[in-house]
Amino acid sequence: MGRVVRLSMVQMRDAGSPARCIETAISWIEKAASEGAQVICLQELIAGPYPCQSEDHRNFDYAESIPGPSTEAIAEVAKRLEVVVVVPLFERRAPGLYHNTVAVIDADGSLAGLYRKMHIPDDPLFYEKFYFTPGDLGFTPIQTRYAKLGVGICWDQWFPEAARLFALAGAEILLYPTAIGWIDEEKEEFGAGQQDAWLTAMRAHAIANGLWLGAANRVGVEGRLEFWGTSFVASPRGEVVAKAGTSEECLVTTDCAIEEIDVVRTHWPFLRDRRIDAYQGLTRRWIDSSNE
After folding, report:
1. Class of domain 4-291
2. Per-residue DSSP letters for 246-271?
3. From the candidates 154, 226, 256, 260, which is the catalytic residue?
4. 154 given a catalytic annotation
5. For the chain, which residues make up each domain, given as ranges?
6. Of these residues, 21, 41, 44, 128, which one is catalytic?
7. Which pLDDT tens digit goes with each residue over 216-251?
8. What does the alpha-carbon distance between residue 123 and residue 194 come to, in Å, rounded to a whole number?
């Protein structure tokens, strides 16, 4: 099978305080490592509740610097267990400058790289534009001891352009730490369709790019949001090879055979057959064909 990376998604609820959230996350990291995980992905904004249901300046108190207390605590564990940990945080970069950020901690405890969320939503109960400046690091994969990771964050997972750019830059595994769920008044009518669309969009990224893909989502009710969990891993063929339920705290762990990337891409040669000479319109906001 060649190189195999054991990948684990952590699905947990808000533990009530930043300190308790990090303590709980570390316990899940230790459990994942005991089961052989080499790359462990935590959920979006791991060190607190999801703060964006309202525009409240007090929520900036959840932000921290990187490096900072959360990354330092997890780096010690990563080094001790020799695991890579994807740590999503509310980053305070400078006074008045905040990001929704992932710090990737390598297996020696060093900071392998950062990703700052590029697509920032502004939807009911997801008022992220109030808090987060759009990322400025692009869609650059992060090399770690075990794999080259393309890491997006939540809203990023809907955009095929982002997944494709990660793939073209050599990512082997796409990871999407997430905080998505049902709004209380919408669940009965729209809930099943929303969740299916979420799964389908990311499975399509795995297929179109011939990559392994994992999503780690929150669970639990926070305010008017019920986070739907369903953390999963998909193969380069888009098969869901491991998946959690909608409410339990758990690990979703599976082995990712990296050589499958080449096998799938030679059978489904989407990258070979791309018409890169004909895609200039993708950099335009809209194409008004009535004037052409």
Report:
1. alpha beta
2. SS--EEEEEEEETTHHHHHHHHS-TT
3. 154
4. yes
5. 4-291
6. 44
7. 999 999 999 999 999 999 999 999 999 999 999 999
8. 14
